[in-house]
Write a sequence for this structure.
């Protein structure tokens, strides 16, 4: 079980990193009003690292949170299904229930 959770967490982190990297790429390409990069007077590029990394970090955090929440819901649902399956196999079928008593009035 721990190996499965570790693999799921690693996959969630990789997908969240991919989401963050794609958003950083989109921000770099569409760079509104020189918010992430601009050209200085001498022709060098000035990168506003904090702003650009905040875009990637916020998307990473949001994606990781959403994926972990989805994973917890799936694990919880699997646990409930497993418990229900165990409960039905232990209790058996309706025919294995003890017979009901008949009350014979006056006898």
């Amino acid at each position: 079980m721990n190996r499965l959770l570790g693999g799921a967490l690693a996959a969630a982190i990789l997908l969240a990193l991919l989401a963050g990297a794609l958003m950083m790429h989109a921000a770099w390409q569409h760079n509104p009003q020189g918010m992430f990069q601009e050209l200085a007077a001498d022709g060098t590029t000035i990168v506003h690292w904090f702003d650009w990394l905040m875009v990637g970090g916020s998307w990473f955090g949001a994606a990781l949170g959403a994926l972990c929440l989805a994973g917890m819901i799936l694990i919880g649902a699997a646990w409930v299904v497993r418990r229900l399956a165990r409960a039905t196999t232990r209790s058996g079928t309706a025919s294995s229930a003890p017979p009901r008593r008949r009350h014979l009035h006056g006898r």
Remarks:
- The chain has two helices and two strands.
- The helical segments are 2-30, 49-91.
- Residues 49-82 form one domain.
- The longest strand covers residues 37-39.
